[in-house]
Design goal:
- Strands 14, 15, 16, 17, 18, 19 and 20 form a seven-stranded antiparallel β-sheet that branches.
- The protein has helices at about 20-25, 65-70, 70-75, 75-85, 110-115, 145-155, 220-225; strands at about 10-20, 35-45, 45, 50, 90-95, 100-105, 120-130, 135-140, 160-165, 170-175, 180, 185-195, 200, 245-250, 255-260, 265, 275-290, 290-295, 300-305, 310-325.
- It is globular.
- The longest helix is centred in the middle third of the chain and has 10 residues, at about 145-155.
- The protein has seven helices and 20 strands.
- The protein has about 325 residues and is mostly beta strands.
- β3 (about 45) and β4 (about 50) form a beta hairpin.
- The protein has two domains: about 10-225, Sandwich (Jelly Rolls), CATH 2.60.120; about 245-325, Jelly Rolls.
- About 15% of the residues lie in helices and about 40% in strands.
Length: about 325
Amino acid sequence: MNTLYPLKFKPIFKDKIWGGQKINTVLKKQFKPLPNCGEVWVLSGVGENQSVVENGFLEGNELNELVEVYLGDLVGDSIYEKFGNEFPILIKFIDANDWLSVQVHPDDKLALKRHNCSGKTEMWYILDAEDDSELISGFRVKVDKNSYQKHLKDKTLKNIMNFEKVQKGDVFYIPAGRVHALGPGILLAEIQQTSDVTYRIYDWDRIDKAGMMRELHTEFALDALDFSIHDNYKTKYTSKQNETVKLVASPYFTTGLIELNRALQKDYSELDSFVVYVCAEGSFELHHEQINYPVNLGEAILIPAIIEKVDIFPQPSAKILEVYMIPE
């Protein structure tokens, strides 16, 4: 069996009613013939939307095929034991040119019961935001099922939602059960569990090209919602140069931010997990065994668990999301 190496994948483009043009104009990814690309999936083991390798001798292979062949060497022994042949995280970039629906995702227990799949906890890293861009994360005031349903019926959900102004570099952790929605003018990277289950609560009375409203999942959402309120919905962190700053640590993924203006070596010999680098600003080269792997804004590269050390060279500077797993 040939030795595993850092893997890059072909992008998967998604046309969305709320999508725009920034995946082309900012991330420099051509998505024709889609009119409005809302999402580009850069690493996915989801069903019919599996990422396909575009570099090296494994070119043309699907991600989950590689997991089945390379097992723990690719994802880590404990991760393979827990998740089997399905790659456990999904990474995408989202361009919100209009409001996304107000929605919620089920947790693992509810998703397994209803859909025989994982739940969906996710996080957002804001790459770019226009002036006055905002999003919804959680409830602003205390409500229960009855008062929530009344607001839904009266179309006054906005009165109880927590709106957040956003700017470049902001981080939001969205655990399963938390109501949320992205607003216009936001370009972000999303890291999430491998799941495509979304319960749409409210879609701003939007009509599609066929004159139809999109399906709502009112009853399903009711059982999934977490009505807790929190003092802070935005993740606080302090930027540092040339080292990893932890953003999110959860059973589903751990994400750090590496801001580079010089070369850096990373040692993962004590980590029983794959590592994914997501380029959130600038560009960099990943060096491993005398081979250089260029990674540009809007791209991701998967470092198999068997690889212990890599060297990163910014070109000339970069911001990188570092993603791996430490499952419970």
